[in-house]
Amino acid sequence: MKYVPREIVDEVNVTPVHPLVNFGYLMGTVVAAAIAVYAGLGVAGAQLAARLGPNAENKVGDMIFDSVFSSMPLTTEGDDFEYLSDLAESLRSDALKKRPDLKLHILEEPAPNAMVSAGGYVYVTQGLLDDIETENELAFVLAHELGHYEHRDNLRSLGRSLVFLSLNGVVAASGVQLPSLLTGSMGLADLHYSRDQENRADVYALEIMQERYGHVDHALDFFRRLNEDELDFGVADRLLEWQSTHPLTESRIERLEELANQRGWSLEGEPTALPQE
Amino acid sequence: MTRSTARSTGITLTTLEGVPGKEIIEHYGLVQGSTIRAKHVGKDILAGFKNIVGGELKAYTELLQESRKEAVNRMLEQAEQLGANAVVNVRFATSSVAPGAAELFAYGTAVKVQ
Amino acid sequence: MIELITFLILVGVGYFIGNRREQKHYEDIKRREKQTLHIPIMSWGAKQDLPYAHEAEMFVGSVVVANDYFKTISASLRNLVGGRVTVYETLIDRGRREAMLRMKESAIEWGASQVLNVRFETANIAGQSQNGGTGAVEIMVYGTGIR
């Protein structure tokens, strides 16, 4: 037997694909899948939110309260609180009366803000109570939050997180490790409302204003002042949070004034005073 | 350790079933040598850096060559005890027994050739 | 944000340096393969008649190769998608050929005319931690050189 030295020229053990092309393909596939999953979760979450019964909603609300808000400085007594909860109760629409009862809390925070969480938990900061000048302003802010509540906006954004958390639990239990890159990019604290949801809540609140006071004047004064503050002092830190979760106040006011004009709601009227303390 | 009879015992190692050109007169059964080595932290840290750019980890190559030499030497000690002058049909096996530790194992048949 | 930037830098450095070194290594491997082509390497020998020779000696060639950061990330993405992990093919291929060359070169130095009954051994020497630890593979080749 004779040995004939011959060279192997073709690289058969190496796939002839450029590493970057390969990387791009992989990245694209994974990102596309992640987007599909995220969108699917959104749909599933919205379905879940729309079907959640009052009991389940109460449970979710209590859970969130226990884990997030219960550790914050909250007040549920005093003249301010009595006035506030009477006002909020009087703003409740018939549809809202079928949902879990309102559970009002005053949050000892200097930044003016208000929020609603699942299960009828309404939070108003002390900063907001200090800043408002008429009942109309306060009623508009409260009605806006009640709008989110009635439209189930908070449940909707929570729905995705709920579905995602349960899915993540299943995936982790099966021993598959999602790369941290992937889980990190899927924010769980996705509690922002969309612009549409904000606009709907605004319209909802303005309707209630017209019903209650017979005009929509002064309802937006609070936001006007917020705007002026911004112009005077630049963007103050404490407003940033408010700003980030709400549409720009200027366009918001304009849109609402236009709506009032269209529907023939009066933009002139006497403000209702706050109770003397 | 490219030439594995590093320990000059005069014992010939082959991966064949005999020693070419020589006849086996006696055989003494299986001999084996094994060692378990852990990577050392400093080297591991350097290797961690190397993991960014890839390529050969020279420190590890040398470490494993050292360890394999030790496994072979242990096998040769067994062969010596048996009075063999060659170990034929030598095979190697490497396995990761614990995170960061590897077992290097060499085995073969101890024989006496002419 | 800082994490993302570090990540991108590591991937970039891994890709550019890793790729350059890989190309250089391949050039080197091909050059040396041509040089050592005259030595027959055979995976038989054990069950054949022993070739006539005066002397026999065992030779070992080994190398530990590590993956670069770019390859690690590509492979972890590939883990989600499935299929051929092309980035590791070149790594293992390089390692195997390098180990083979080291064995051949030491056999040539000794004066071998051929290397018989060659066996490969591949071992993962990486840490077994969840995040992969240091991804490295040892490849060794051994065989009997005769002269």
From TrEMBL, chain A:
Its cofactor is Zn(2+). The keyword Cell membrane does not apply. CDD domains: M48C_Oma1_like. The chain crosses the membrane at residues 20-41. Binds 1 zinc ion per subunit. Keywords: Hydrolase, Membrane, Metal-binding, Metalloprotease, Protease, Transmembrane, Transmembrane helix, Zinc. It comes from the Bacteria. Residues 95-259 form the Peptidase M48 domain. Pfam families: Peptidase_M48. InterPro entries: Mito/Outer_Membr_Metalloprot, Peptidase_M48. The keyword tRNA-binding does not apply. Belongs to the peptidase M48 family. This is M48 family metallopeptidase. It comes from Leptothoe kymatousa TAU-MAC 1615.
From TrEMBL, chain B:
Pfam families: YbjQ_1. InterPro entries: UPF0145_dom_sf, UPF0145_YbjQ-like. It comes from the Bacteria. Belongs to the UPF0145 family. HAMAP family: UPF0145. This is UPF0145 protein IXB28_12475.
UniProtKB/TrEMBL annotation, chain C:
This is Heavy metal-binding domain-containing protein. Transmembrane segments: none annotated. InterPro entries: UPF0145_dom_sf, UPF0145_YbjQ-like. It comes from Leptothoe kymatousa TAU-MAC 1615. Pfam families: YbjQ_1. Belongs to the UPF0145 family. Coiled coil: none annotated.
